[in-house]
Design brief:
The protein is of the alpha/beta class. Helix content is 26%, strand content 27%. Strands 3, 5, 6, 10, 11, 18 and 21 form a seven-stranded mixed β-sheet that branches. It has a six-stranded parallel β-sheet with strand order 14-13-12-15-16-17, with helices on both faces. Strands 1-2 form a two-stranded antiparallel sheet. The radius of gyration is 20 Å and the shape is globular.
Amino acid sequence: MTFRVPTLSAANGEFTVVEQPMPVVAEDGLVVRVELGGVCATDLHIAHGHIPGYEYPSTLGHEVCGIVEAAGPGFGGDVRGIPVKVGDRVAVMPATPCGHCSACKSGGRYPSCEDFDVIGFSQPEHRPAGGGWGQYISLNARARVFVSDAPAENVVLAEPAATPVEGLMRAGFRFGDSVLVQGTGTVGLLAIAAAALGGASTIAAIGGPARRLEIARGLGADTVVDIGAVRDPEERAALVMAASPAGRGFDYVVECAGVPSTVPEGFGYLARGGCFVELGHFSDVGNVEINPYRHILSRDARMVSSSGYTPDSFSRALTLVERMGDKAGNLITHRLPAERAADAINALQPSARWQLDGVEVGKIVIDPWLAS
C-alpha cells in the first residue's frame, strides 16, 4: 500500500504529488492520518531556498493535525500524560529532539538539539512519511503530541499559536499589561488572541487589510490601525500612541510583520521599561537602523525573540486555539488539495497580492484527502 504526499524537487523547483510506502507503526511509535496541514511563510522560504543548508527534495508541512491511525503499545501518553489511542485527534509538535546530544543533555533554557527530527522539513529518502501535507506521517517514540477534542480547524492552529505564546512568555507578559501587535497575518492574529486570553488591559494592532482587522477586533483588539490607509509614519504614530494607556506607550510590542521598518517603529511605541518581542523575521530580509540611545537606553527597553517554542508553550497554545471556538475558523480562508501545494506557496508572495482564487489569503491549509 502507498499514500500520497506533495514533494518539492529543489529550491525554486516543482511540487509533485508522489506515492510513498505506507508507514508501519513501530512498537513505540505512532502513525497519524493527517486531517489538515497548515501553510506558512516558512514553507515559502523553503520553496525559494532562503534557508541555508536546507536539503532537497523535501516534503513540507509542519503545522499538523490528524487522527491516530495506529499506536504502538510502547508509545505511552501525550505530553500532558493523556493516553494516546487509535482514533484520537492530535496536534503534532513538529520538532523532536534526539535526547542524546550535548545540547539536549545540558537542558538549556531554549529549544536546542544537534539532531532534531522535524516533521515538514524532511527528505523522503532519509525521513519517509515526514511531511504534514501528505496523507500520513510516522512518529517515533520521542514525538510530542497533544490529544484534543477540538475541531481540526482549531487544532491545526496550535503550532503557529505557539510562537506568540512562547514570545509573550519569554518577555514576561502578565495580566493587566498592554500589548501592541505589528502585523495581522496568522501569527499576529494569534498574538492578539493570546494577549486577550492572558488578560491584557489594552490591545492594539497595526496591519491590514480590512478583513484581517475585523478578525483582530473579534479576537480582542481594542484599536486597529490600517497600514494601507495610514501611510504617513507620524500620523500612524499619533494614532497608535493615542491608543496606549495614558498615551505613554505599550508594555509589549510584538513584531509579527517581518518587515525591517517595523523594528525601529515598534521600539518607538514602547512605554518606558517595555519589551519589544521579535517574532516576524524568520528569514533575512534586510537590516534595520537602530539608535541605541533613542530606541533602547532612553526608554529602558528590553528585547526578546523566539524562533521556536517549548512543549509547555505549545500546550498553552493548544488551550488558546481550543478556547477560540468558532473564531478559529475565521482565520482559515483556503482549504486546498495536495495537488495545489504550489498554488498555496505562490499565494503568499507579495507579487500575488495575497490573493488566491479571487479571495484574500489568510491561513491556507492543505487537506490531503481532498480531490483535486
